[in-house]
């Protein structure tokens, strides 16, 4: 039996088996995700929808290979067969913002059985500005706020916003060879930062952005006609100047922006706590014991950032949640074989 036929039959028999279960049986919902990191994210998302009628099992893309990724999920031939027992859960990347300009974008935006993050990727949720102080606290066990992360990220977003519009423009016109996503990332990232004067870094980014924008305006004079149209469309889709950071490439944001700020801030917070311990210790033995206890209680800031789940008040996440509710309610209303709860559906992300 071919692998493709086997996958199709597996989907069919999963749905058939669900209908044959006892009306009171707790339904197993299988969800395939893109990669290892996505397991934790989608588990956190889907936890809310587990109840006495169903539960979820989050799985990697394939039972037969080590292949992973969005392309593997969506390049198979199962797209037309997505449905009640088979859905996809993927990063939006630029596909959400391209609004059908490519085949993948059309699938992401038009198939009701494909869930996507709306923001570029799960890393963007992990870097949600309003949650970054809590990440520092988890990593350092020090609640002193050195940097106003929310204000910093919002101002950073306003600075990169016009260049981001350019990035979407070139991708929508399939003319991105001179201004790739990598090139965009090089102009919006930074290395060292003075945490006491973050405005210096923002001015540095502003200079790089303005220089690149001047080059783009000269390189693509025809863009003037519909640049404002793209800008307005992005606003309609939920991208705002203050939240642009949520829609840039996830790894660029995580490694080249947020960690560049969090790492030095956490270093200062740890040193501050250690100075306090040295000041308060009554003798050398107490000092060494307390320092050892504190150092063993710390966590790497990048690990805490990857485990950050304090993004559920963000507007894009609320849209994702509503998509899940909408699908589950639709399935519940259409399934006449058993009493239904709002989460009575088999969810399979195929890869």
Q: What features would you describe in this structure?
A:
This protein is mainly alpha-helical. 56% of the residues lie in helices and 5% in strands. The chain is built from 15 helices and four strands. The protein has helices at residues 3-20, 36-46, 70-75, 95-98, 103-110, 122-126, 132-140, 149-172, 181-188, 198-219, 227-236, 250-280, 284-297, 301-306, 315-334, and strands at 27-32, 54-59, 88-90, 114-116. The strands form two sheets. The protein has a two-stranded parallel ribbon. A two-stranded parallel ribbon has the order 3-4. It is flat, with a radius of gyration of 23 Å. 37% of the residues are buried. The model is unreliable at 3-9 and 338-351 (pLDDT under 50).
Structure summarized in a few sentences:
The chain has 351 residues and is mainly alpha-helical.
């Amino acid at each position: 039996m071919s692998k493709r036929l086997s996958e199709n039959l597996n989907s069919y028999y999963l749905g058939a088996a669900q209908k044959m279960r006892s009306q009171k049986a707790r339904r197993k919902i299988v969800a395939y995700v893109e990669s290892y990191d996505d397991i934790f994210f989608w588990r956190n998302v889907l936890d809310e929808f587990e109840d006495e009628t169903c539960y979820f099992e989050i799985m990697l893309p394939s039972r037969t290979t080590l292949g992973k990724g969005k392309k593997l999920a969506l390049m198979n031939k199962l797209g037309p067969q997505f449905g009640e027992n088979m859905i996809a859960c993927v990063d939006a990347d630029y596909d959400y913002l391209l609004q059908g300009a490519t085949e993948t974008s059309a699938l992401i935006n038009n198939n009701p059985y494909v869930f996507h993050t709306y923001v570029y990727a799960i890393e963007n949720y992990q870097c949600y500005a309003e949650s970054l102080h809590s990440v520092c606290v988890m990593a350092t066990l020090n609640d002193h706020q050195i940097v106003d992360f929310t204000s910093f990220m919002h101002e950073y977003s306003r600075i990169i916003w016009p260049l981001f519009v350019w990035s979407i423009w070139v991708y929508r016109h399939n003319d991105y060879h001179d201004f790739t996503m990598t090139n965009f990332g090089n102009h919006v990232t930074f290395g060292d930062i003075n945490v006491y004067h973050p405005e210096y870094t923002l001015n540095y980014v502003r200079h790089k952005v303005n220089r690149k924008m001047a080059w783009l305006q000269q390189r693509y004079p025809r863009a003037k006609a519909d640049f404002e149209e793209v800008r307005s469309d992005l606003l309609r889709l939920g991208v705002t100047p203050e939240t642009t950071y949520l829609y840039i490439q996830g790894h660029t944001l995580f490694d080249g922006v947020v960690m560049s700020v969090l790492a030095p801030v956490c270093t200062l917070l740890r040193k501050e706590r250690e100075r306090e311990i040295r000041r308060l210790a009554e003798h050398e033995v107490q000092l060494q014991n307390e320092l050892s206890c504190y150092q063993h209680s710390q966590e790497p800031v990048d690990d805490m950032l990857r485990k950050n789940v304090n993004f559920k008040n963000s507007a894009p996440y609320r849209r994702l949640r509503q998509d899940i509710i909408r699908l589950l309610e639709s399935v519940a209303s259409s399934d006449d074989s058993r009493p239904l709860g709002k989460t009575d559906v088999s969810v399979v992300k195929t890869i």
